[in-house]
């Protein structure tokens, strides 16, 4: 592959190859040196048109641990504010000969469009409601490490599915790897036609969580709710917030996940989120660096081969 724009074009063997490579970067990141020179001489530009803590920090650390020259564009201070378009901005940066562009954008499809205009490898760091592929890959690695496998698991994705690129990429990745995926949420927060994705749909947490291996909670994405249904936080927590009582329906060794940022007391009980016997939320963050190192390693390898050809 030339770019990493989504999970959709990936084969199960591609997913396994990225996760296997990421395992080596978990070890490297835990070592004293933390460093490789695999991307020495390469330039990585991070363009985040939307807020981020985890994704931006981990892409920056990933690039630096691989020895790349990493530049974070301050998009709020860029000439986008003077009316320059996304494509003109991309062409301008392309002329500076970057090797890797990491892009987050509020519009679905914007990163695909940009990738068609530049010569380097593009990594989608989240585009609108469309995809967030490295999130799904870091979630897959976290599950594989916690459960010892990434197939034939029962996985519940809960909450605001309709507005979530994390849910979309996870549904694609987890079904490709032959897991049973259940979506749990109020009808207003489940997208139309979701049945076509090969998932089961539930509107009741107690029912949907019965005997699952993995519980993945999502944030209510109010910034994407344009005038439609916005539940009160109290009511939402009562019906859909994960607490010990609802979790007791899942398998006794079920793990609890959340991509972050998390709203404690809205979609998840704060004590449960901090319970290291159940919650793997901090592991997800750690796996994020390793998976992004692996994705950039593999794309840089392909880029070098194309240039040498
Ligand atoms: N999970 C995730 O994408 O978090 P950020 O928005 O903080 O990057």
TrEMBL record:
UniProt KW keywords: Pyrimidine biosynthesis, Transferase
Report a single Gene Ontology molecular function. Answer: aspartate carbamoyltransferase activity
Give the record's GO CC terms.
Answer: cytosol
* Span of the signal peptide: none
Q: What is a single Pfam family found in this protein's UniProt entry?
A: OTCace
Binding of L-aspartate, residues: 82, 165, 219
Instruction: List residues of the Aspartate/ornithine carbamoyltransferase Asp/Orn-binding domain.
Output: 153-298
Q: In which pathway does it act?
A: Pyrimidine metabolism; UMP biosynthesis via de novo pathway; (S)-dihydroorotate from bicarbonate: step 2/3
Keyword Mitochondrion attributed:
no
Ranges for the Aspartate/ornithine carbamoyltransferase carbamoyl-P binding domain?
A: 2-144
UniProt keyword Transferase present: yes
Q: Which EC number applies?
A: 2.1.3.2
- A biological process term (GO) from this entry: amino acid metabolic process
Residues where carbamoyl phosphate binds: 54-55, 104, 132, 135, 260-261
Superkingdom of source: Bacteria
Which PANTHER family does the entry mention? ASPARTATE CARBAMOYLTRANSFERASE, ORNITHINE CARBAMOYLTRANSFERASE, MITOCHONDRIAL
Give the family per the record: Belongs to the aspartate/ornithine carbamoyltransferase superfamily. ATCase family.
Q: What does this protein do?
A: Reversibly catalyzes the transfer of the carbamoyl group from carbamoyl phosphate (CP) to the N(epsilon) atom of ornithine (ORN) to produce L-citrulline.
Q: How does it assemble?
A: Heterododecamer (2C3:3R2) of six catalytic PyrB chains organized as two trimers (C3), and six regulatory PyrI chains organized as three dimers (R2).
Name of this protein: Aspartate carbamoyltransferase
**Its encoding gene is what?**
pyrB
């Amino acid at each position: 592959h030339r770019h990493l724009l989504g999970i959709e074009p990936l084969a199960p063997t591609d997913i396994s190859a990225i996760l296997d490579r990421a395992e080596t970067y978990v070890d490297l990141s835990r070592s004293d040196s933390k460093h490789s020179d695999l991307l020495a001489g390469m330039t990585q530009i991070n363009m985040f048109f939307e807020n981020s803590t985890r994704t931006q920090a981990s892409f920056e650390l990933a690039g630096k641990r691989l020895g790349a020259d990493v530049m974070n564009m301050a998009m709020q201070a860029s000439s986008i504010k003077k009316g320059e378009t996304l494509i003109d901005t991309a062409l301008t940066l392309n002329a500076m000969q970057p090797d890797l562009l990491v892009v987050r954008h509020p519009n679905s499809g914007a990163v695909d469009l940009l990738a068609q205009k530049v010569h380097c490898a593009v990594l989608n760091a989240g585009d609108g409601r469309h995809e967030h592929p490295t999130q799904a890959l870091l979630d897959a690695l976290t599950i594989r490490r916690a459960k010892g496998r990434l197939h034939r698991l029962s996985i519940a994705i809960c909450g605001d599915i309709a507005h979530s690129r994390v849910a979309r990429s996870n549904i694609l990745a987890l079904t490709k790897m032959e897991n049973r995926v259940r979506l749990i949420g109020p009808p207003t927060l489940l997208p139309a036609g979701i049945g076509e994705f090969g998932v089961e749909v539930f509107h009741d947490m107690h029912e949907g969580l019965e005997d699952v291996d993995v519980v993945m909670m999502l944030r209510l994405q109010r910034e994407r709710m344009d005038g439609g249904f916005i539940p009160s936080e109290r009511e939402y927590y009562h019906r859909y917030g994960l607490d010990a009582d609802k979790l007791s329906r899942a398998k006794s060794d079920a793990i609890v996940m959340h991509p972050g940022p998390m709203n404690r007391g809205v979609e998840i009980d704060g004590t449960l989120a901090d319970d290291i016997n159940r919650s793997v939320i901090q592991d997800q963050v750690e796996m994020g660096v390793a998976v992004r190192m692996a994705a950039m390693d593999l794309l840089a390898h392909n880029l070098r081969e194309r240039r040498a050809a």
